[in-house]
Amino acid sequence: MKNNSYRSTFMRFYLLVSISTFAIMMSSAQSPQLLVSNSNKGTQKANLQMTDILKELEAKYNVFFTYKDKTLKGKIVPQNLRRSGKLEVILDFLLKSQSIEYKKVGKVYYLYTSEELAELKANSVNLLENRTSNSEEKPFTTISPLSSQEVKSLIIANPIKGKVVAENGEPMPGVSVRLKGTTVGAASDLNGNYSISVPDKQENPILIFSMIGYNPMEVSVRNRTLINVTLNPDVKSLSEIVVVGYGTQQRKDLTGSISSIAMEDLKTIPATGIDQALQGKAAGVMVNNNSGQPGAGVSVRIRGITSVTGSNEPLYVIDGIPFSGDGASSQAFSAFGGGGGQSNQSVLSSLNTSDIVTIDILKDASATAIYGARASNGVVIITTKRGKANESKITYDTYFGYQEVPKKLGVMNLREFAKYSNETRLDNSQQLNEEFANPNILGNGTNWQDEIFRKGAIQNHQLSFSGGKDKTQYYISGGYFKQDAIVIGSNFNRYSLRVNIDNQVKDWLKIGNSLTISNTNQQITLSDSDDGVVSAALLQSPAVPVKLPDGAWGGVEDPQAYYTINPVALALQKDVSRKQTRLNGNFWADVSLYRGLSFRAEFGGDMGFTANSAFNPTYKWGKLENTQSKLLRRNEQSTYWNAKAFLNYNKVFNNLHRVSALIGHESQYSIYKSVNSGATGLTSNDVQSLNLGDPKLASVGDLIIPWAMESYLGRVNYNYDDRYNLTLTYRADGSSNFGPKKRWGRFPSAAVAWTISKEAFMKDVTAINNLKLRIGYGSVGNQNLPSYSYGSLMASVITAYGTGFYSDKLANENIQWESANQTNLGLDIGLLKGKVNLTVDVYDKKSSNFLLQTSPPSFTGVGTNWDEVKSPFFNAGEMQNKGIDISLNTTNIDSKNFKWNSNLVFSHYKNRINALATDKDVYYEKIQYFENITKTAVGLPIGMFYGYTTKGIFQNEEEIKASPKQTENGGVNKWSGTFPGDIIFADNNGDGKIDASDRVILGSPHPDFTFGFTNTFSYKNFDFSIFLQGSQGAKIFNFTRVRTEGLTGLGQNQLNTVTDRWTLDNPTGKLPRFILGDPNQNNRFSDRFIEDGSYVRIQNISFGYTIPTGLLDKVFIKRLKIYGSVQNLKTFTKYSGFDPELGSYDQNSKLTNVDNGHYPNPRTFTLGVNVEF
Amino acid sequence: MKTSFFKYTAILGLSLFVTTSCKEEFLNQTPQSAITIDNFFQTKEQVLASTATLYGFPWFNFNDRAVVPMGDIMGGNVHTYDPSFQAFMVFSVQPANSNLAVSWASLYKVIGMSNTLIKLIPEKSAASISKEDLNASVGEAKFMRALAYFYLTRLWGAVPIVESSDLATGDANINRNKPEDVYKLIIKDLQYAEANCLSNKSAEGRVSIWSAKALLAKVYLYQKDFANARLKAEEVINSGQYSLMDNYADCFKQLKNNNAESVFALQWKANSDNWGTQNTIQSYLAPYNEGILDTGEFWFLCSKY
To answer: Which residues in chain B are closer than 8 Å to A646, comparing Cβ atoms?
Structure first.
């Protein structure tokens, strides 16, 4: 490689090494011997030594030079050297002619040749990955220049030799070795060997070994000449840099509650979007995949549920650009009639996960307050990779694998189905199916689950280039991700490109940018609907073939049969897709002004272009026929920009008071435009074009929604003596979503932290290396209200005088943000030199002012029904979440070859609605056409399951007569009333009849706790990790079973549990009788369908091997890792459905844990390679 | 010096660029694909398009569910097999009968929409529209409100007087008002319409001062104020704007809507995409194929009341 490729090295590890290696330093602050003015040019004496002129410059410019003796030995100053003006100019002239490079850090200039640098660089490779603070903040000052006396004393000193190794036994180059109390120093070489001379006269000499990222070590020499030492890494969590929003902070200075996750830990988890991979990794953060459909929405709940009526998704901030966590909804199947299923797409699915370097999750109000009115649901800050100077790197990451459904449900095969069909038809006086006359001679029939589930290939490729010289660093990557999902007809792929650049334009000016372009394509299958593909696969009769011999789709011909959908045809014929091109990024300039004061300006944006298409062809599946095709297209264009300007101030006073402050302004604007168009009666199923529809039935419309926000923000961090920390944050947000009378919301927070372990009285408690107490309180908001909810639009209606307009709802100019006030109490404990780290946070979060709509009496002239002038929105209500987040990191074994680390996160919250508009207000939610299934009311947690309770099965008519009337019609009647074999519903209010008022709370979809438990082991170059994840105590409403154990429809397959239904011959049957039409309403929503949703899942197992460095040098590979991983290997649960991880239906927190033909999460096997050149 | 110059120019430039201080309008973002109450009412036509809504759609449920059962069925003119209307036929109407609630709500919807327009038209209309035109439109709304209260108090007696839609945002726990107070409001509203509405009979059936006078005459009759009733009735009769149809049956034909006898009528418009803008009564009552309707089919016929 060319020498000058290293010229601009600017990294702290290099500096450390260089300082240490050039242990004999020649610079001094002695008074200048020669001061040659500019006018003396040409008259100076000949053969002036380089070292002399450097001394002169040192004095004149108040700087220091450090170099090895031999570097400058015999080097002579050119004759025509200028000695005034800019020092850099002088040096460039002076040194370049001698092929000497220099590097400036603070006041110190390091001089070296390119050979020396190459050597250093080789030594320092292992240190690159340390996530430490910026070198500029802490100039290396532990070694001061030697005086000439000291240099002389070295000559008569005793040499001590030894080797420095890391805790894993690897030699450590570049470790600084220093004689305590002197300026005598040395550094270890490539092999970790060092040699230092201790002057004879030194009494009781002590050597100090130090290295950034490692704990310094003091060793008494005691007349030894060979001293080998092992350095232990500094406790990572203490020196870690945390992104806090509009800046960074060291973890030790934090006062709020922030969980940080390094992408390194998520690397082997194959996920479409990073939100999925966060599951079980951060305390207080509950992540559920709402659907196994690739790219589908994910529910991320930070510290419980915050909003009753609005969104509960956190704010994502990717390299400074905020993104709402609300998924994008597609125009989908509901437009064709029937259930729409879930079509929500995760915002993060367009972000290439391989580009991410860290994720910081801000949880409490003191941490999130800097995001003000967008922060009530927590903030997830995602930072992407950036280039590092002097580190040219090419990496290629890839994995291949396949996905499969982890579980199939036991439904009846053809023989069982025929027998069941014969029995039930006979009992219900229906005509028997002749083909089923002798079930025993039949085969298994169609296994619909085998037909719709497949092994889907998954692959990911990412090629990145990063590096840079002293002034410019870059990171460029290209990625490709493709996922064929486990249900036919659904898949996802993504192309992405990223360019991140940093540049030091001037001493005082630094600029940079992040830019990414992605293109995603999502094919959606109808799921989470009782006419969806997954439900249909369970319900369609095994007697129906997928295709007929002539190639046409199979279908149901039996006129009595109830279920007519061909699931395979549904998956493959009805086509919904969402194609998106997204471009986002920002650029910024950082200007240093004066002594710790700097100014930063940032401009960023996000543009999205989406083509969403939904097509319903003409088809004939047996007797189910669609004769009119329909095509809907929605083209969306969204534009967002933000502009930020802020001043930063960082200063240390008297080495005791550290102050950092921030004050800024931000403005944001977005506009969303969509054009909807539709065609009906297309002439072809093969060409999906609007042009082919019937012109008379064409439809068109558009939607344009602008939004703007302006903010002022400020933050002060104060630290006294590393013991006391104070953080004050304030943000004022004006949003166009707020009513004109409440346009500005103000969000203050304050927090303090006390690092007890730094107190003098803790000095002797060596078992505790970190003990910190944090307390904070703050107020944040949620401005994510429907646009213009405060105002009144003119709605149109047909009148005899043409189109008439009336105001659609009453305005309320006082509409404001939803508020969330949170108190956080945290404790950080580090034990056994950082081998055990425990963080516990307890919180009390009260959210209020939800956006509600009044239900006034009808004489007010307004209401909430579709044909009424709507009542105004207003803010009311209060909800509380109390909880605890625990995370425990331990280093269990840490020997030379074998290491074992554990990480446990535990989250618990308790949710309660304290108030709604009035105490009597109740919100119900239903799915599809079903009755209300959840209830949200004062005194309860949000979204509780709500329905009837059951008391077994009626065995005879006497029992029915002695019981409360089960239905309105009531009475003993096989066909229209209650009959033996029917479910006994409980008369919970004791009024002698069963009706809607007997419904009670049946269970909670909220878990008692969730946890994640990761264990990583490494032995030499092998590593292994196992990650368990689980949820305890949440209930699930298994709506799928309402259908699959419904026992009411002919020609509809059922779970094989229905063989244990009540019949005269089987009076102990667990399920009720089969009866057409369900006159007793056995299937009304009751505790029959509530199941325990607790589970423990082996979420990920991975096994990797890193090929030893030396072996690959010849093929120019720096690092090569091969790994295999299994995602979602095994789930331990009592839940009878496909998958107990259900999330919230289209992210709606009032419809959590409802299984309606859920698209299960896949099991994924992958094989991956990371190569670094 | 040079550095400082660049530096501060850069800062200044960046500051101006990034903090471009937003004026208050920046935060005033309203939907651009729909029209709001603030940018409507800009022309006389738009104001008329707002009062046009009062002639049909808010009356729909009252017309559909009350006019026939509470009128002709209870009057003994109609026999029905419709179970929800049978109670009216046999005078056994229970409070829970859904026809009562929706009819009540429908009349108050007329009142609510009228209230909104009475407030919005003077407040939001462009200055270029003449005061007379605005007052005529407010008069239409007041006429509709009076008519709705007239039905309300005749059917229910004491009813709450709601003159502003602000009630929906505040405490809606209000008392009913005595019928005499309701009549005071009705007369006041009709007198406003009498003073401000169109001075000539509208060919398309809009409210005119003559509609107001005619309704006033009827209201006075209910008040037993026969002198005023006679006065208003004679004004209409002698106005020369109205005459009797040659053929009485023509009064009921759709094609003869807004004829010489028509003083005021609701104006319906059938449309296959909008439920609730058509007149359903004809499909309940009109004999099939008698030439009363211009088409012979079920719901989506055009007709005017």
So the answer is: none
